[in-house]
Amino acid sequence: MSSHTIESLKEFTSFIPLRLSPSERALLTVLESTLHVSEYTDNVDVATNRYGGGTTRGGLGKAKKILDGILECCHVATGLGVSGMIDHPSTVLRGITNAPPTPKESFLKGIGKDRGFDGENSIRRGLSKKSRKAAKQAEKARKKEEKKLKKRQQQAATSGISVSVSASGPTTSTSTASMDEDVDVNSVSIASTTSTSDPAVVEHDSNSTVTVTVTGTPTTTNTPTNTPAPILQTKLPKHYENISSIAALTPSQNEIFFQNIFEIGRRNKVLNPSKMRDTYGKLMHLLQDAQSPTIAKSLGFKLFKELVMVRPFLESRGERVKNVLDDERLVSATMFVKTKDLLTGEVVERYLVDRQVSEKRQKVQELLDEYSNNGTNGNGNISNGANGNGNAAAAGTIGISREELQLCIDSISDAIAVVESNVAPVQRMIHLLEENFDQSSYEKAFTLELRGSGKSFTPSRYGYGFGAFGGGFGSSRDSAGPTLSHSHSTQYTFVWQSLTLWREVQRNMHRLWVCADSDLLSISTSYQLLNTGQGLNRVQQCPKVGKVMRFLLHKTQKAAGQPWVGLSVVHLGDRDVPNALVFIDKYTQIPRFLKPIADFCDRIPEMCENEKIATYIDDQFGSQQNLKMAVLSDYFKHGFDGSGDDGGSCIDGRLTSSWNWTSRIVKKNYYHSFMLSGFQGFDGDFK
Q1: What backbone torsions phi and psi does residue 337 show, to the nearest 5 degrees?
Q2: pLDDT band with cut points at 50, 70 and 90 for residue 348
Q3: Which of 26, 37, 392, 545 would bridge with 397, disulfide CB 3.0–4.6 Å?
Q4: % of the chain residues with pLDDT over 90
Q5: Pairing of strands 184-189, 528-531
Q6: Contact call for residues 653 and 636 (beta carbons, < 8 A)
Q7: Cβ-count burial of 156 within 10 angstroms (0-12 exposed, 13-18 middle, 19+ buried)?
C-alpha cells in the first residue's frame, strides 16, 4: 500500500500467496473443470434422515459417500490431466523438486510457442502429428545424451575427474583430491537448461552448461561467470521412475499431484477472490472432509498442502535473496499507482501516473539485476522447494532466477493493488458521509434519524439474504423495516464506525484469507452439519479468524475516540456465520455494493451533460445535489437500519442490513437514475 514501510511490507508478504506460473495455470484449469462436474457437496451434505445420509443396513454411511466422492474427483482430475498432456511425472513434481525438464517439456518450451501452444490451452487441444514426431526425436536424443553422461559419471567416480559438458563440447579437469577419499557416487548435481542437444527441437542458451559434480571431490569447470549456480536434484519417488504418465499409478501414488492441484486452487482464490465463486466452496468442503483423521486413514493419502507464500519462498533462497525483503526499493517497486483520488474521486493527471509507472519499473529492474541470478533455474519455471512451501534449502537450491524474483515482486504488487482497490470504495463512502452530513445538525428531508419497529429477531428467523422478502414466509415481523431507533447524531456515529471497521477489514483481507483457510482445514476442530435457518450448513469454530477480527474491532474502537454504538459481538461458528467460508465470503462483498454507490455519486455531473437526463433529474429531484443526498441518506439510514441479527447492531448485523438494502434498490424512486448512469447490479459473473 502507499503507506507501507519496508517493515510493514515485509510482514505483509507473509500473507501474500505466490502468483501462479504458466504450468500451474494449466493445472488450475484441470481443477476447475473437475470441480465443475463434481456433485460432491450435493451427495455428502444431506440430512441424516434423507437420501441415506446416515448409516444404512448395507453399510453405506456418510464416510463411504465422502471416500467415493474424493476418489471420484481424483480420478476425474487425473483423466483431465492426461487429456491436457500434463500427465508426465516431471510436470507433477515441478514445484517440489528441481528436476531438469523432460524432452516433452523442452519441446513445448522451445518450439511449442511458435506453433501457438500454451500450457493453459493444452487442456483443450493436443499436439499435432508433426509435433509428436519431433517430441519422439527429442526423446531419442535425450536417451543418447544420458548414456554419455552415465559413462562420464562412472569415470569420475573411479578416477576423481569432474566432467563439464558445455555448448561447445565436453571438457575435463583433474581433481586434486586424494583417490583414497570416500566418494558418494549417488550424490550428483545437474544444472541444465535443456534435455537434448538437437537444436531443431530445443533452443539452446549459448551460456548453458551441464555440470556433473562428485561429492567430496573439488572440481573446476569452464562454467561461464553469468551461469546460475548449480541446482541439486532430489531423488524422485520410486513409483515415478520409468513411467511416462501418472495414469499408470493409483490415487495414493499420485498424492503429490493432488496436493499441488488443490493448493493451486486455494492459492488462486486468495489472489483472485472474484474467481471460483461456484466451485471454491466445493473444493474446501472436499479438503475439509479429507482432513478428518478417520477419512484420511481410510483414504491412505493426504490432499492438504500449505499455501506457497512470498516471504517463505524468498527466505528459502538463501541469505542474499532474503535481503530483498529489507531493501527500501521494494516499496517503490510494488507501489500502487492511483488513477483516481481516494477521497474526491477526481482523475489523476496522466503525466503523474506515467512518472510513477516509470519509477516503479526502474526499481523493479534494479532489484532483478541485484538479487537474481543472470539466468533461469534450468527450465524457466517456478520451484517451490522440497516441501512445496518454499523450503528449497532441503533441495539444495541456491539463489533465485530472474523469472522467480519477478513473480514474487508481481505477487506483492498484485496484493497491494487488490487491497487499495477494495479500500477505495469504503474510504470514498466515509468521505461522502463526512462531506454531505453534519453530526450535530441536519436537513429535515435528508435526516438519518431512524424510528424502528422495536421487533427483534428470534432464533428461528431466516438468515441474511431473506430480509428483503419481509414477512413473505409467514413471519410475524417485517425484517424489511428498521429495527433500530437512533437519532440523527447516533445514526451518523453508527454508520461512521461501521464503515471504519470495514475499511480496517479490507486492509487485512489477505491475513483473514490465510486464517480462514487454516481454520477450515484444521484437524483440531471438526464441523457439525446443522440446519441454521439458512439451510444445512457446516458449523465450525474459527479461532484464528476470530482472533484477528477481535483485534481489528478493538483497534477501530480505540481509534474512534467516542463510545461504541451498538453491539460488539462478532458472530463466528454459530447459526449466523456458520464457518470461516461464510465469513470471508460476506466481507469480500463489501466493495461490490459500495463501489456502485460511490461511482453513481461521481457520475451525476457527467450524466447531466445530457440535457434530457438533466431535465429528468431536475423534475424528479429538484437538483443534482438533491439526487445525491436522496441516495446517500437512504443508504446511510436503511443500509444500517438493523435488518440483521441481535437487533442489527452487532458486527455481522451491520453488513447484513446493507445486503438487504441492495436487494430492495429496485423499489427506490431513484432506481431509474442508477440505470441511466450505467449501473447493472451489485454482483458480477460467478465464473
Answers
A1: -90, 110
A2: confident
A3: 392
A4: 46
A5: unpaired
A6: no
A7: buried
For the beta carbon of residue 579, count every other beta carbon within 10 angstroms: 25
Is the pLDDT at 388 greater than 60? The verdict is no
* Of residues 379 and 567, more confidently modeled: 567
Mean pLDDT, rounded, for 398-413 = 91
Grouping H, G, I as helix, E, B as strand and the rest as coil, residue 572 is coil
Closest CA to 32 of 20, 44, 43: 20
d(CA 528, CA 517): 18
Handedness of CA 22, 24, 26, 29 (dihedral sign): negative
Alpha carbon of residue 235 to chain centroid? 30
Under the phi-then-psi rule, with left for phi > 0, alpha for psi from -120 to 50, and beta for the rest, what region is 106?
A: alpha
**Whole-number Å distance between alpha carbons of 225 and 227:** 6
**Which position has the higher pLDDT, 7 or 99?**
7
Q: Is there a contact between 210 and 165 (Cβ–Cβ < 8 Å)?
A: yes
Angle at 244 between CA 242 and CA 250, to 5 degrees: 85
* Rounded CA separation 583/543 (Å): 13
Q: How far apart are CA 580 and CA 516, in angstroms?
A: 5
d(CA 460, CA 465): 15
pTM: 0.74
Per-residue model confidence (pLDDT) at position 458: 38
Of 264, 516, 512, the closest CA to residue 388 belongs to 264
pLDDT at 196: 36
The confidence score (pLDDT) of residue 338 equals 86
Handedness of CA 604, 605, 611, 614 (dihedral sign): positive
Residue 181 burial (10 A CB sphere; 0-12, 13-18, 19+):
exposed
Q: Is residue 416 predicted with pLDDT exceeding 70?
A: yes
Query: Which among 227, 172, 260, 196 is positioned nearest to 398, based on CA atoms?
Result: 227
For the beta sheet containing 184-189, the strands, ordered from the edge strand earlier in sequence to the opposite edge, are 169-174, 161-166, 209-215, 184-189
Q: Report phi then psi at 374, rounded to 5.
A: -80, 65
